[in-house]
Amino acid sequence: MSLPGAGARRGQHAVMAETSRSPERLVRTLLDRHGRTYAGQAGITLRDTPSPLYRLLVLSHLLSARIRADIAVGSARELSRAGMRTPRRMADASWQERVDALGRGGYRRYDEKTATQLGEAAGLLLEEYRGDLRRLRADGSPETRLRELPGIGPTGTGIFLREVQAVWPELEPRIDGKALQGARRLGLPESAGALARLVREDPAEVARLAAALVRAALDASVADDVLDAAGEGR
Known about the structure:
By secondary structure, the chain is mostly helical. It contains 16 helices and no strands.
C-alpha cells in the first residue's frame, strides 16, 4: 500500500532538480553516467568518412521505427557484421541476407519491409551521391535530402542529424523534441541553445548530451539515477 503523499513526493522529484542541483552538475552527471551516443553504442566510431556516416544512417533508419532502441542497435551491429557497411555492400547483398541480419538482431517485426527499404536507399545513395553522404552534406540541405531516402522520414532524419553534429559542426546545436522532453524531466533548460552552452557548445559534447537526454525521456529510471547522483555529489 502506498504511503499518503508518496505520489506527490515522486511528482516533486524533477522539480527538486531546479532548486537543489545546478544545471552544470546535472549535465555533467548525465554525461558521466549516460552520455554515450547511439552510434557509440552500436560500435560506430563516427568520423566524417563514408562508411561510418552510412552506418549511422542505417542505425538512424532502424531507430526510427516503433521498436526498442537496444533491438535497433543490435540489428545495426548485425548488418555491419554481415559486411553491409557501405551503400555498395548493402545494395549488393540479397534481400534475404538483409532480412537474416535484421532477424539476428531481433528486428523481426519490421524485417521484410526494412530490408527492402535499406536496399532501395542504398541504390539511391549510389545513384545520386556515389555512395558518399558527404556529397549530400555539401549541397547545403542535408535535412531535405535525407528525407528523400526510402525509410528515413522526419524521425530518422532527426536522429541522424542529432548524432552527426559531432562531425558536422554546422548543424550544432541539434537537440530535438525527444531530447527536450528529457531536459524537462531533469529540470534542465528546454532550449537547444541553453543546453549547448552548458557543454560550451562543443559539437561532440552536444551530440552526447542529446543522446543522454533522449535516454532520460525514454526511461524514467535514467532521470532518477541522474537526479539522485547529482544530489549526492557522486
